[in-house]
Amino acid sequence: MSVPVLRDRRFVRLWCGTTASGLATWALPFVLGLAVLDRTLTAGELGVVLAARTVGFLAAVPVSGVLADRYSRRGVVLWAGLAAAVATPGIALGLGGSVLVMAVAAVVVGAGQGACRPAFQALTAEVVEDGRRRQANAAITFAVRVTTLVAPAGTALLAVVLDTWALLIGTGLLWLLAALLPPTGLPAPAPAPAPAPASGRVRLLAEFGEGLREARRHPWFLAGLAALAAVIFTGYSATGVALPLVSRDRYGTEAVLAAALTAYTLGALAGAVLVARWKPRAQGWTALAGLALYGFAPLSLLLPVHPAAVFAAYAVAGLGIELFNVPWFTATQREVEPRLLARVSSLDFLISYGLAPVGLAFLAPAIDAFGWKPVLAGCALVCFVAPAAAALVPGTRGFSRRTATPAA
């Protein structure tokens, strides 16, 4: 009988490392927000720094996927965490002085964050055997959701006794823990023999292209990723743009915004607990059905309902997103060729996280042009239809290529 995943010391070290990186990631915007409140930083400068971090993240994700497959996944986590830890004091040094220094440091921090994501995903598959990965992924995503609650509250409490500079250094220390805590995984996967020598950039592109070809071998992966991208582009953007407007204009208080986001997180926590213990037979279809539940979030903003209905809709959306996330990560770790896992995971993060800011930038002008009701109706429709369409693709029933085609 296998040891429960949370009693495995190697996994606990990995879990602590991912949790530290999540706390550092979520705390930084709130720390910088405090700098805006005390007028050390302007709102425009805050936008520049956070945008620079996003640029670093998106630039590093595909590169780190290749490096984590070519070399040690543990090594990539180490150097990525150290880079973010070393760059974080640069944000503190530029605070109130040079926004350029802050932006450059934020690019490096974002690159460290982006490099960690696919490497952590692949390292989980090395540290935890197949039979326990579902519980491991549920524990990791549970920690991620807890950090969304703890990071803002913890930052606000620490701000009572610490200034912004000290809080920024604290996020750097969290990155140091993320770099040092995870255990060593398996030896680096043996790379496929290269047909001919190539320059560094060409070789990176060729190796990332190999990950794309691996992703194409799994129709369920492409279908699920397309559905996830559609939901993030529409449903997530509705949360980021329309929810504050509806909270202010319909209900006359920002408390609805805060309560809805809290309900979403609590629903996600419940989803992580549920999916760790429940393994449906058609796990892929169940995951896609959970993803479709996000459609209730924009739908609740469209209809003139009591605030409690909005909170319930966001709790259901949070529950559903974890019903999708955990089987999705577990299936990717199981089905993808191990030596290409980090590259395929980087494609996942690149598309899902990359479309989030694009959707946010698109939704506000769309609301101005067409009105918020038609836009929210379209967002809800996409959230319901995209996962349903993905479920028609062969292999999505169990998130497995092995069920995609019948035996001859």
What would you say this structure looks like, in words?
There is one protein chain. The two termini are 36 Å apart. The protein is 78% helix and 0% strand. The protein folds into 2 domains: 5-182, MFS general substrate transporter like domains (Growth Hormone, Chain: A); 212-403, MFS general substrate transporter like domains (Growth Hormone, Chain: A). The protein is mainly alpha-helical and 408 residues long. The chain contains 14 helices and no strands. Helix 1 runs antiparallel to helix 4 (99-127), helix 2 (43-70) packs antiparallel against helix 13 and helix 8 packs antiparallel against helix 14 (372-390).
Keywords:
408 residues, mainly alpha, globular, Growth Hormone, Chain: A, 2 domains, 78% helix, disordered C terminus
Assign the CATH superfamily of the largest domain. Answer: MFS general substrate transporter like domains
| CATH class division of the largest domain | Mainly Alpha
Mean pLDDT: 85
CATH architecture field of the largest domain? Up-down Bundle
End-to-end separation: 36 Å
Taken as a percent bin, the fraction of beta residues is under 5%
Helix content: over 70%
Task: Give me the CATH fold name of the largest domain.
Answer: Growth Hormone, Chain: A
Task: Characterize the overall form.
Answer: globular
For the record, the count of structural domains works out to 2
Question: How many β strands by DSSP?
Answer: 0
Could you give a short account of the major beta sheet? none
Order of helices and strands: HHHHHHHHHHHHHH
Taking all Cα atoms into account, the compactness measure Rg is 21 Å
Structural class: mainly alpha
Query: Which spans have pLDDT < 50 for at least 5 consecutive residues?
Result: 404-408
Count up the helices: 14
